[in-house]
Amino acid sequence: MRLSGIFIVRAVALAGLAACVVSAIALWQARHSARLVYAQNFALVDDHGRPFEFSQTRGRPVVLFFGYTNCPDICPTTLATLAHAKAAFGARGRDIVVLFVTVDPGRDTPAVLARYLALFDPSFVGLTGNVAQLAPVFSAYHVYHEVVHSTETASGYLVTHTATIYFIARDGHFQTYGDWTDSRDVLTRDLKEILS
Amino acid sequence: MKRSATLVGAAVTLAAAITLPAAAAPTIAVTDAWSRPATQTGGVFLTIANRGAADRLVDAASNVAAHVELHESVIVRPPGTSSANAMAGAATSKAMTMRRVRSIAIAADAATVLKPGGYHVMLIGLKQPLKSGDRVRLRLTSAHAGVISTTATVRSM
After folding, report:
1. Interface of A with B in 165-194 (CB under 8 A)
2. From the CA of B43, how many Å to the nearest CA of chain A?
């Protein structure tokens, strides 16, 4: 009777272990069988006016976002939430590279970008370029943008743009996506994924 | 002397009584006004608590910017986007646009919240950058309740 009790305990433990192994394999397969898509390299100009290539970030987790400094709503919301989520990781979070690519190169010069981003997190990198430099980046990252001229508003023009936030792992593959509606908790989870 | 003072007092009371319907029934209150850091263009978000009939926010003014307008952010589906986007799927098929609006409806007996992704008061041509902790004084005008003053706090979160 006592012997069979131990046997049952052992059998259950063994079955549990087997289940763990099976699910771990399944998880590994799910993660690795999906075709990883890698972020495409590009060459732009950073907010200090220096040439910047995406490949410079290899080995570090990257958050990529497209917007413009005259955007009063979605862009500052995204930048503020990202700044706080990143800050919560402390020293570890300093590894994260946050790239803000302008969809409004006509107004967003490197100096304008630097002044704007410093209000959120001075480590955020603003990127701009001429139309020929930016066009392939918008294309590669599926960024829709359109300048909307309106006599209705004193702002001159507004820019309709894709508001996706791209989370790119250290090896350059797209880990996950988000947007301005994500809470700080959701962004924290996304950052944790690319920090690992 | 005392008599004339009483007379003035009566006149003041009478004047107050005449303007009473508007002055004594502040059915609209603006609370929790806030803004984000900004350099040239800022957005102010706020809550309009209305204990009365439906109204409309028709104007906003502030000394911090050259122009103040009422705007709305809207989600749009870019033309030509398909769900066959290998990289991000539906994530990249949404874009944000913005447009000026002439007024913002203030619902009766409800709180109307101006928040990111919807309506906001847009500050165009900021005279100086808005930094976290700064305060922005606003004068809002509604069609029925008139002018309501409030102060927005700039916060980075």
Report:
1. 166, 174, 177-181, 184
2. 5
